């Protein structure tokens, strides 16, 4: 068995898990100015992800660790060449996490407003920059013979990359709003369904444009099929939302995001970092991977650890599966952390 191939797709699977799970966290954070009519509404929104947002973020930590161990050359080139956008993502995630913990510490409206702004920005910035980063990985960047990035930040801001950023931004935004409709009761639930319909139409236009561009650049049968699947699943999510089938809508949005990520990884394969200036400088799953022994040891660890991770996360979602409404927010909510 070719373990380099196996680990390429394992890393893809973990990024799928991260974008599906933390994706709706980003969407909920971005929805605060649209669905949070008052402080109680905003508390409801935050509490929908309160028990799970930090657990969802661990997927990207594990994905990064796997990338470092399985494909150290890819990791080195990616984190050096994309240093600024990845640093901005990290800062945004820190600000968002701090805001969840400190927003409730004081009752002043100005205090809460500042932390709400940090939650919104800390959700929107990663949602956009992850799309920019992955679009650049698929498109390729200038690399020298040592596989070092030799471009500038402007080389990362191409029309395709910016469109990729808008795609993930809108996908996560709609995903999060559908999650709000799934997890809430009362007026906020109806407003979330209405907003999901409107944002979903914009998302569909942007996502189809990005997927079409990707298919044009990478005309393989697998990429074409996955792109069509992503578009079809997105339509299913919008239809389910209109029919008030929140569970189906959420599952379809999760499958849409998974299909989009699979489309990008399939378009990238077998490269992991194409060199647009000279194809011979590209990083592939072969010249970027660790030794066979390292990959074998990692495989045994993953075989033992991954099922435990999935069981624990599934248990956490089961425990906190009930819907939330304004009635669940006590009058003295300012004195308590997100449930």
How would you sum up this structure, described in words?
- The chain has helices spanning 3-30, 32-35, 39-49, 53-70, 72-81, 83-102, 109-139, 159-183, 187-217, 221-242, 246-268, 292-319, and strands spanning 271-273, 283-284.
- It is globular, with a radius of gyration of 20 Å.
- Helices cover 74% and strands 1% of the residues.
- It is mainly alpha-helical and 339 residues long.
- The relative contact order is 0.16.
- Helix 4 (53-70) runs antiparallel to helix 12.
Cα radius of gyration in angstroms = 20 Å
Q: Low-confidence parts lasting 5 or more residues at pLDDT below 50? A: 333-339
Name the helicity range.
Answer: over 70%
Strand order of the largest sheet: 1-2
Largest sheet: 2 strands, antiparallel
* Arithmetic mean pLDDT: 93
Question: How many strand segments?
Answer: 2
Global morphology:
globular
Q: What is the string of SSEs from the N terminus onward?
A: HHHHHHHHHHHEEH
Which structural class do you get from the secondary structure elements?
mainly alpha
What distance separates the N and C termini?
46 Å
Total of DSSP H or I helical runs spanning 4+ residues:
12
Strand content: under 5%
Oligomer state of the chains in this structure? single chain
């Amino acid at each position: 068995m070719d373990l380099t191939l196996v680990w390429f797709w394992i890393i893809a699977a973990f990024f799928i898990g991260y974008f599906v799970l933390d994706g709706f966290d980003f969407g909920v954070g971005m929805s605060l100015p649209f669905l949070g009519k008052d402080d109680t509404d905003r508390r409801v929104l935050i509490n929908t992800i309160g028990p799970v947002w930090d657990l969802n973020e661990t997927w990207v930590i594990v994905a990064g660790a796997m990338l470092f161990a399985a494909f150290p050359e890819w990791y080195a080139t990616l984190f050096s060449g994309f240093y600024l956008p990845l640093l901005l993502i990290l800062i945004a995630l820190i600000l968002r996490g701090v805001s969840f913990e400190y927003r409730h510490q004081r009752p002043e409206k100005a205090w809460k407003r500042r932390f709400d702004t940090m939650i919104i920005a800390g959700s929107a910035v990663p949602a956009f920059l992850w799309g920019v980063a992955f679009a650049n990985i698929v498109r390729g960047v200038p690399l020298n013979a040592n596989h070092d990035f030799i471009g500038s930040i402007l080389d990362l801001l191409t029309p395709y990359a910016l469109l990729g950023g808008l795609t993930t931004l809108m996908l996560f935004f709609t995903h999060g709003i559908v999650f709000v409709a799934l997890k809430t009761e009362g007026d906020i639930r109806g407003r979330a369904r209405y907003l999901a319909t409107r944002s979903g139409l914009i998302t569909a236009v942007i996502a189809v444009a990005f997927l079409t561009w990707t298919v044009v650049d990478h005309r393989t049968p697998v990429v074409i099929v996955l792109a069509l699947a992503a578009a079809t699943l997105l339509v299913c999510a919008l239809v389910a939302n209109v029919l008030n089938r929140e569970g189906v809508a959420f599952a379809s949005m999760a499958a849409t995001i998974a299909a989009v990520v699979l489309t990008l990884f399939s378009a990238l394969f077998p490269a992991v970092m194409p060199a647009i200036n000279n194809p011979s400088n590209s990083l592939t799953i072969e010249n970027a991977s660790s030794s066979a022994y390292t990959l074998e040891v990692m495989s045994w660890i993953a075989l033992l650890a991954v099922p435990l991770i999935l069981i624990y996360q599934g248990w956490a979602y089961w425990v906190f599966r009930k819907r939330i409404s304004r009635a669940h927010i006590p009058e003295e909510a300012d004195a308590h952390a997100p449930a």
